[in-house]
Specification:
Blueprint lengths: L2 H18 L9 H23 L6 H16 L16 H6 L21
């Protein structure tokens, strides 16, 4: 087992456990929950498979998984935060974070641009 393979196993384990230990105080979002579950199970099963039968791992694959692990650590395991681009969120994050509650956003107007009749 090479050093790169050991690092890969550690990174995958970090991904799986960071998602597993995430707790949400609000309502769970169904699509994000499924995405987080698939990511967690995939990372942990890949770590177990790599430990049981070490295969060659590319440096790029380890770096990609390390970037995901760092992002999850930065957001405390919140997968939904990885998709947010702005304060309101991107279209992708609004689609993935769909809940039964509808949020109404206030539109901002610049009063100095309005013309008085």
């Amino acid at each position: 087992m090479t050093l790169l393979c050991i690092i890969h196993i550690i990174v995958l384990t970090i991904i799986a456990f960071r998602i597993m230990l995430f707790t949400r105080s609000e309502r769970h979002k169904p699509i994000i929950s499924v995405l987080a579950y698939i990511t967690m199970v995939s990372a942990l099963s890949e770590a177990i498979a790599s430990f049981a039968m070490p295969l060659p791992v590319s440096f790029a694959e380890v770096m990609m998984n390390a970037a995901l692990a760092l992002a999850l650590l930065a957001h405390k395991g919140n997968v939904a935060e990885l998709f947010k681009a702005t304060q309101k969120g991107s279209k992708l994050s609004r689609l993935l974070c769909w809940t039964h509650e509808k949020k109404h956003f206030k539109t901002k107007t610049n009063r100095h641009h309005e013309v008085n009749p």
